[in-house]
UniProtKB/TrEMBL annotation:
Record-given protein name: Protein NKG7
Example GO biological process: inflammatory response
Function: Regulates cytotoxic granule exocytosis in effector lymphocytes, thus acting as a critical mediator of inflammation in a broad range of infectious and non-infectious diseases. Essential for cytotoxic degranulation of natural killer (NK) cells and CD8(+) T-cells and for the activation of CD4(+) T-cells following infection. Plays a critical role in CD8(+) T-cell and NK cell-mediated cytolysis of target cells and contributes to the cytolytic activity via the perforin/granzyme pathway by enhancing exocytosis of LAMP1-carrying lytic granules.
Source organism of this protein record: Hipposideros armiger
TM spans (from-to): 61-81, 93-114, 134-155
Membrane topology summary: Multi-pass membrane protein
Major localization class: membrane
Gene: NKG7
Length: 165
């Protein structure tokens, strides 16, 4: 297996794991007050107020990114098995899907960032983004890397011609 394809598979797998962990954990936002602290994620618990629209948008785009990232990684795995892949097309399609997954992750975290950033602040409470949020950003970078490496694998793949006959 060539190095670009191997690294693309590694980066895509890390991006998929990162977005899944970010989606399933509850540490997107942390608030620390004088007597207590709290954290929240994308999946509010209990009977609270209705979930804000930006949370739904972040959930939707993050889930779509995870699904498309899974397709990208699956196509890369299939491209490593010559009998199951179309000659030369697996890395190209995987590259496109990895870039789409990165785009969806970026939309999700930018929407979340912009809405959380504009919320009113209380002088008694210190708020900040937490590790699940940053893991979402990291997954976008991994998907971008997987897309670029997969595109490199596609461009460096041998083309059928007279030399191969």
């Amino acid at each position: 297996m060539e190095p670009c394809r191997s690294l693309a598979l590694l980066a895509g797998s890390l991006g998929l794991i990162s977005i899944l962990v970010a989606l399933s954990t509850d540490f997107w936002f942390v608030a620390i007050g004088p007597t207590s602290s709290a954290h929240s994620g994308l999946w509010p618990k209990g009977n609270q107020d209705p979930v804000a629209g930006y949370i739904h948008a972040t959930q939707t785009f993050s889930i779509l990114a995870a699904l498309i990232g899974l397709v990208s990684v699956g196509l890369l795995v299939l491209s490593c098995i010559p009998s199951l892949s179309a000659p030369g097309r697996g890395p190209l399609v995987s590259s496109i899907t990895a870039f789409v997954a990165a785009l969806f992750v970026m939309v999700a975290v930018v929407v979340y960032t912009s809405e959380r950033w504009n919320e009113p602040r209380c002088s008694q409470v210190q708020t900040s983004f937490s590790w699940s949020f940053y893991l979402g950003w990291v997954s976008g970078l991994f998907f971008l890397s997987a897309g670029g490496l997969s595109l490199g694998a596609h461009c460096n793949a041998p083309r059928p011609g007279y030399e191969t006959m």
